[in-house]
Write a structure and sequence with these properties.
57% helix, elongated
Length: 40
């Protein structure tokens, strides 16, 4: 595995744990929030 792959894996692992926790903490304003899936 080259260095770029290692960085991608680390960022992906971080996002897998951070994003669900972040979504729980978002303040619900009653306004529909954009939830666009990202793609590479």
């Amino acid at each position: 595995m080259n260095n770029l792959d290692a960085v991608f894996v680390d960022v992906n692992d971080f996002c897998q744990t951070f994003i669900p926790a972040w979504k729980k903490c978002l303040i619900s304003s009653g306004i529909k929030q954009r939830n666009k899936l990202s793609c590479l």
